[in-house]
Amino acid sequence: MKNNRSAVMDVLFKNLTRTFAFLVFILLAAIMVSLLYGSRESIAAHGIAFLWTNNWDPVQNVYGAMVPIVGTLLTSFIALVIAVPVSFGIAMFLTELSPVWLRRPLGTAIEMLAAIPSIIYGMWGLFVFVPIFQQYIQPHVIDLFAGIPVLGDVFAGPPFGIGVFTAGLILSIMVIPFITAVMRDVFELVPPLLKESAYGLGSTTWEVVWRVVLPYTKTGVIGGIMLGLGRALGETMAVTFVIGNAFNLPSSIFSPSNSIASALANEFNEAGGMQKAALLELGLILFLITTVVLAFSKLLLLRLSKGEGTSH
Fold first, then answer.
1. Which residue range(s) make up the domain with 30?
2. Residues 27 and 119 in one domain
3. Could you point out which of 127, 136, 210, 299 has its C-alpha 20 to 30 Å from the C-alpha of 269?
């Protein structure tokens, strides 16, 4: 009797866990279908041209996704350009260079940064960073690069304080704790014998990092970067505070613009008809972008994992 009961419980447990696993696929499919259904009017009206149309005019009922898409990708790119080297430096300091007494408090401080709500980052960016940046930093940066080919255009424009660069900078501060935590954990997995052998052969700290630590942990490092990218792509409140929320293609990184998440947050509550359908299509595009990024990262990690633990 006891054996029969155990067998029944075992079958129930397996079926329950299987149901939970398939529930993930069901939820993803449901989200995809609901976004497609809700945006059907916009898809039918605008077609594929919705992706490269930069007009967003609720009065004329004309909508295009190019500005939010460019703003989303550009702010995420700026965030990674800033966050990846900073996170790498912090993680390397914690695992290789930091005194033992400093590792725990510094690690705790990094984890606390990850726990701060995004709206706090946005408020700090708008009310503290933006005035300082606008008055004391941005004008000098604009003057510094003025007249230089390419760079002069990249850093051009009036010093508003808010804009694409500010949004990317705030995003970088937000994703640094996540990337740092992953990098620190994977760096700690490197066998001490490998590093000690390299040091014994006369390698410097940088040579050990470049030729031993990074080749051994490249999969985890890429995973941490992709985790940060996923957080940056979908961030809403912090970006909404500082990006400027203007449906204009940025002429420089200091220009106000918009992102997909910010557009949804600002307009969805009062939208209806074609505007609501266009916003849902923006949500569908963001969903597809994150899916493509995740799929690409998985393929990259799969390829890198074949050479895990080997140096080049």
1. 1-38
2. no
3. 127
Query: Considering Cα of 43, then 22, then 232, then 154, what sign does the dihedral take?
Result: negative
Q: Is 244 helix (H, G, I), strand (E, B) or coil?
A: strand
Could you tell me if 162 and 14 lie in one domain? no
Closest by CA position to 198, among listed 206, 88, 183: 206
CA 158 to chain CA centroid, nearest Å? 27
Tell me, what CATH number does 115's domain have? Answer: 1.10.3720.10
Q: What are phi and psi of 257, to 5 degrees?
A: -150, -150
Residues constituting the chain: 312
pLDDT digits (tens, 9 = 90+) for 235-276: 888 899 999 888 888 888 999 999 999 999 888 888 788 889
Regarding whether 273 and 211 lie in a shared domain, the answer is yes
Three-state SS for 188?
Answer: coil
Please give the C-alpha separations between residue 20 and each of 7, 30, 31, 34, in angstroms, as whole numbers. 20, 15, 17, 21
pLDDT tens-digit series, residues 167-208:
999 999 999 998 998 888 888 888 888 888 888 888 888 888
Q: How many helices (H) and strands (E) does the chain have?
A: 15, 2
- Give me the long-range contacts of 40-48 (CB less than 8 A, separation at least 24): 40/277, 41/273, 41/274, 41/277, 42/274, 42/277, 42/278, 42/280, 42/281, 43/277, 43/281, 45/274, 45/277, 46/278, 46/281
Cα 9 versus chain centre, distance: 42
User: Could you give the angle at the alpha carbon of 227 between the alpha carbons of 36 and 256, nearest 5°?
Assistant: 70
Q: What is the amino acid identity at position 125?
A: G
- Measured from the Cβ of residue 51, the count of other Cβ atoms closer than 10 Å reads 13
pTM of the model: 0.86
The total of other beta-carbon atoms located within 10 Å of residue 8's CB is 10
User: Which residues are CB-contacts of 149 (< 8 A; sequence separation ≥ 6)?
Assistant: none
